[in-house]
Every structure is written in C-alpha cells, then in structure tokens.
Amino acid sequence: MYKKKILIILIIISSIFTIGFTNDIQDIKMEPIKIGGDNNYPPYEFVDSNENFRGFNVDIIRAVAIELGLEIELIPNSWENTMDALKNGEINAIQGMTITPERSRIYDFTEEIVVNSQNIFVTKDTSYITDIRDLYGKKVAIQAKDVTKEIIKSIPNIDIVEKVNQMEALEALLSGEVDAFIGNRLTGIFYVQTFDLTETVKIVGEPIYTTKYSIAVKKGDDELLSLLNTGLKAIKTNGTYDKIYLKWFGEDIFDINQKWKNLFSTALVALLFSSMFIYIIYYWNRSLKKEVDIRTKEIIALNNIAMQNDKMQSLGKLSASIAHELRNPLTSIKAFVDLIPLKYEDERFRDELIKVVPNEIKRLDELVSSLLDYSKPKSPKPSKIILKDILSETLTLLKQKIREKNIEIITKDTDIYFYADAPQMKQILINIILNSIDAIEDNGKIEISGAVENSKAVIDIKDNGVGVPKEMLNKLFDPFITSKKTGYGIGLSVTHRLVNQNNGEIKLNSELSKGTEVILYMPRILEIGDDKNV
C-alpha cells in the first residue's frame, strides 16, 4: 500500500513537469516567430521583381519551420534595419549572419548553415590591386554593418564607403566612385552573372576572410536557439538541406578567374613535380653515364693493354716462326755449299745439289711472297666468276701434285657464278686444295661441289685426309699455325683474309682420321661501289 502511494505521487509530479514543458513549446508555436533577413543579398536572401522573398536562407528557414511545425513570419528589410530590429526585439531571429567574435558577444548562433568568404572585386582594367595589401590609400565600397568592416578596419588609410547593400556597392565600383568593392563572394558572383558583367568585373587575390554563416538569435534566447538547431539537424539528416544547397549554389560556384587560377596552380604543381622527376632522372642518367664512361675507359685501357700484349706475343711467335722457316732451307743450302769443295767431283752429290738447292730457294721465295701478301694485301677487283672455269685453271696448276699422290678429284654442280677478285680467288682455292693434298695419304679423295643459298654461292671442298684436332680448329687461321709435319703455316691465314676482303665467309669442319671440310660463301650480288672495278 505504501509503495502504491509513492508511485502515484511520482506520476503526478512527472505529469506536472510534462504539462509545463509542452505548454512552453505550445506558447512558441502559438505565436508566429518573426525572422528577419536582408532584402538584397542574393543568392542568400532577396526580394525579387514580383515582391517575393526568396533565396537560400529563406528556403532553409522554411524547411526548418515545416520540420518542427512552427509558424513563422519572414520580414525582409535592409541589412542595417534588420540588425537593429533584432537588437530592439522587433524580430526573434535573423535567418543568416556571418559569425565574428564581436557579434558573438551580442548574438547567439546556431550551427552553421554554410561557410562564407569575403573577396575583393575590381574592374577588369584594374591592374594596381591584386590583393588586400594593395588597398592601402584606396576607396573601398562595402555593405553597411557588413562583416567586411570588421575585417578591413585594421588596415590603415583605407577610405571606406558604406552602401545599403552589396548591389549598390558593386554599382559604386562600376561608376568609378571607388577603386574596389569587398563583399560576399557568392553574392558578388551572383550579381556579376545576373547582369552580364563577366567581361567587366573580376575577383582578385585570395579570400580575405572565411567564416561560418548561421541563424542568429538574441543573446540568451536558448529556447529558440535549441529549437532551430533541432530543425537544422533534421533537414541535414533527411537530405532537404542538400537539395536546397544544390538549388542555389550548384555543385561548385566560382568565378572564371578563380577557375584559371586553380588550373594554373594545379598545372604549376604538376610542372614542379614533373621537373623534379625529370631532373632526378637526368641527374641519375648523367651520373650513370659518367660511371659507364669511366668503366668503358678502364675496359678500353685494359683491352688496349691486352691487345698490345697479344700483338707482342704474336710478333714473337711470328718472328720465331719466320726464323724457323727461313733457317730450314738455308741450313740445307749451307750444308750443300760447305760440301762443294769436298764432293764436287761426286756425280751423285752434284745431282742432289741440283735437285735440293733450287727447291729450297723456291721454298724461300714462296715464304717471302706469302709474307708480302699477308702484310700488304692488295685491294680486290671483283668480277663475275664461273666456279667451273676457275676450278679448272686451279686444278691444272696442281695437276703434278695430285698425280704424285694418286688423288681422285670429284666435282659436282660447279656451273654457278659469284663475284670476287679472280687472282685472289685462285689463290684461295690453291691454298685450300694444297692443304687437302698435304693432309691426304696415297690414293685419297677430294670432293668439290657448288650450290646456291639465297644471295650466296656455296663452295664445299672436302677431303678424306688425316683431319685436325678439335683444339686446333679455332687457331688454324692464325699465321704460322699448322697441323702439318713439314712446311710453313701461313696459307690458311692468307686465305681467311682474302675471303673476308671479297665479302665472303669461310667455315672449317674437321675430324681426326676422317678428313676436313672447308666451306666458302661468296657473294652473287655486287656490293654498292664494287662494280666500278668490274
């Protein structure tokens, strides 16, 4: 029973408080809330040609009233009169005001409905004003009691001309009454676009003041302030605010000069980063090139040293080989000469002398001729050569040696032509066939065939001689390198050089106890400029 009494008392107390709070809201709802606004501050608030009060602020406050079920009365007036009306209690709120420290001491503000900025407007032909510092000593138009006055009053020696609204301030600029007009950026752009002044007026400098723009109530009117904040949060949550914002401001409203400035700034930043990147790449490439140049010079120097060493070694080998090749026939000749006084009467000695000494002299002559050909090569004079014809001439010269070893010569498909120096080509064939003859024991065989591959004539010379060890194949074209048991080894070196001089190519295959194959690739088309010697 006691508990029931306590519960009844609590219910009665709660009902009393609820009734009292509801009555307070009802009191607010019963009397229309008077809200003032500037009658010429587009696109925020303005009276149009049909005497309708329109703008962003008007739509916002009406949306809040609908959301809360409030009855409101909108009162447009000049900005100065509107501020005085709130101060005197003639209205309950101003639907849009820029927040400043000074105003915050007089009014309470809701959460912001938009962020505003103040900008400098000048005529297109004005070049002496580019930012706020250039306003020193100039006449500047502003709206009376606008936040702009608080901003620029700290700048000395500015002649401030106050106008009833921003339109009149802009007109003062156009008439030449003032040097510049400072006002709300979006309002200024609205006037410029509405009256087609884009070729007459421009914005200069950065925004000189960016502030929050809110609904203002008298200081201490917490009840109305709380109610308005509740309504603002509701329309921001349900999407109504966004629709109103897009209706009056669009996605992004700014003047053409600012567009170009933003584009220029973006391009400048991009150019700066690109330049830095290019410089880094350039510096890195230059450093890398220097390093490569240093390493290249080192490699060239090492190669030169190696080449010099190779040349010295080759020269040493060449000298030793020449000395050896000269000494052999000279030793034979000297031996016979020394024996002449003792054995001249010996008929067998005389016959041997007549046979050996001329042969040794011939060997010396061939050696000297080969050395001359190797050291001072003649420039080739290419002409059209039929393989069958030059091969016939070559084999005729070597007939005796071929007969001595009873070697069989087999030719096939030799009716092909190519271009080369005829004497040099004959020397090439002689050297190759002689090497085959020397490598063949008695009753051997040499096969010579021709073929055509693209623009080349292919001459294949194959023997069944003793062959060459694999380790010597890569050295056979060096001077005085030979697999012969007797004689000098400069023939293949000369052959290799002569083939190259005639724009040909030579390949060599060999296998011990099976034989050797030499393949020549000679051109069937004259190189440009070669036909002048044909």
UniProtKB/TrEMBL annotation:
<dbReference type="Pfam" id="PF00497">
    <property type="entry name" value="SBP_bac_3"/>
</dbReference>
<feature type="domain" description="Histidine kinase">
    <location>
        <begin position="321"/>
        <end position="526"/>
    </location>
</feature>
<keyword id="KW-0902">Two-component regulatory system</keyword>
<dbReference type="InterPro" id="IPR001638">
    <property type="entry name" value="Solute-binding_3/MltF_N"/>
</dbReference>
<keyword id="KW-0812">Transmembrane</keyword>
<keyword id="KW-0472">Membrane</keyword>
<dbReference type="Pfam" id="PF00512">
    <property type="entry name" value="HisKA"/>
</dbReference>
<dbReference type="GO" id="GO:0000155">
    <property type="term" value="F:phosphorelay sensor kinase activity"/>
</dbReference>
<dbReference type="InterPro" id="IPR004358">
    <property type="entry name" value="Sig_transdc_His_kin-like_C"/>
</dbReference>
<dbReference type="InterPro" id="IPR005467">
    <property type="entry name" value="His_kinase_dom"/>
</dbReference>
<feature type="transmembrane region" description="Helical">
    <location>
        <begin position="263"/>
        <end position="285"/>
    </location>
</feature>
<keyword id="KW-0597">Phosphoprotein</keyword>
<dbReference type="InterPro" id="IPR003661">
    <property type="entry name" value="HisK_dim/P_dom"/>
</dbReference>
<keyword id="KW-0418">Kinase</keyword>
<dbReference type="InterPro" id="IPR003594">
    <property type="entry name" value="HATPase_dom"/>
</dbReference>
<dbReference type="InterPro" id="IPR036097">
    <property type="entry name" value="HisK_dim/P_sf"/>
</dbReference>
<keyword id="KW-1133">Transmembrane helix</keyword>
<protein>
    <recommendedName>
        <fullName>histidine kinase</fullName>
        <ecNumber>2.7.13.3</ecNumber>
    </recommendedName>
</protein>
<keyword id="KW-0808">Transferase</keyword>
<keyword id="KW-0547">Nucleotide-binding</keyword>
<keyword id="KW-0067">ATP-binding</keyword>
<dbReference type="Pfam" id="PF02518">
    <property type="entry name" value="HATPase_c"/>
</dbReference>
<dbReference type="GO" id="GO:0005524">
    <property type="term" value="F:ATP binding"/>
</dbReference>
<dbReference type="InterPro" id="IPR036890">
    <property type="entry name" value="HATPase_C_sf"/>
</dbReference>
